[in-house]
Amino acid sequence: MSVRFHLRVSTRLYASLEDVWQVKTDVDHLEAELHPWLRATLDKSELQAGLRGEGLPRNLPVRFWGLGVVPLPTWPLQLVEYEHNRIFVDTTAENPLFHEWEHRHIVEQASDAVRYMDAITFSPRFGPPHLVARWIEFVFKHRHRRTARQFETDERATAVAFLRVVVETEDSGEGFL
User: Fold this and answer.
1) Shortest CA distance to 71 belongs to which of 36, 39, 94?
2) Tens-digit pLDDT profile for the chain (177 aa)?
3) What's the total number of domains in the chain?
4) What's the pTM?
5) Which of 80, 119, 142, 151 makes an SS bond possible with 13, Cβ 3.0 to 4.6 Å?
């Protein structure tokens, strides 16, 4: 039996859609969002080109370091979708950490603000799945709080997270916990 998780983390930012998009697609900001829990080593020019929608799908090997010093396996990231000022999607199929990983970065206009949402579907390959899922939730909430430092925001609408668990079995298909 494998366990699949769906995580949604969103924040309402009082800024223009263009300003939020610019920050969320800035490679240096993406790295800073993870600090101090993770550090990423990657080809910044390749990622920046992908975040401009150039040459998709684009394969990008990323190396993460837990707590900034513990090496984790290389993450074979692939940027597969891009729509300027709206969405970009990264996935991985051969990831040593996850059976499945799809991360949708969504920026959308709301009535009086811009909503940024990370929508992640993943299935851990190692460890207790629910603990791994809680760690992923923690890291993404941390990222949203870091982004909220860049813009004015409603504190009650910052890093709002929903984690849904889907259990898959070979016999019965999908079920929800």
Assistant:
1) 39
2) 689 999 999 999 999 999 999 999 888 888 788 888 877 777 777 777 877 777 776 676 676 767 666 777 777 888 888 899 999 999 987 788 899 999 999 999 998 999 999 999 999 988 899 999 999 999 999 999 999 999 999 889 999 999 999 876 554 455 444
3) 1
4) 0.86
5) 151
Question: Hunting for tokens 């992908």 — which residue is that?
Answer: 50
Distance of CA 144 to the CA centre of its chain: 10
CA-to-CA dists, residue 128 to 28, 70, 123, 134, 142, angstroms? 32, 19, 11, 10, 21
Q: How far apart are CA 145 and CA 153, in angstroms?
A: 10
Residue 80: which CATH number?
3.30.530.20
Q: How far apart are CA 57 and CA 130, in angstroms?
A: 31
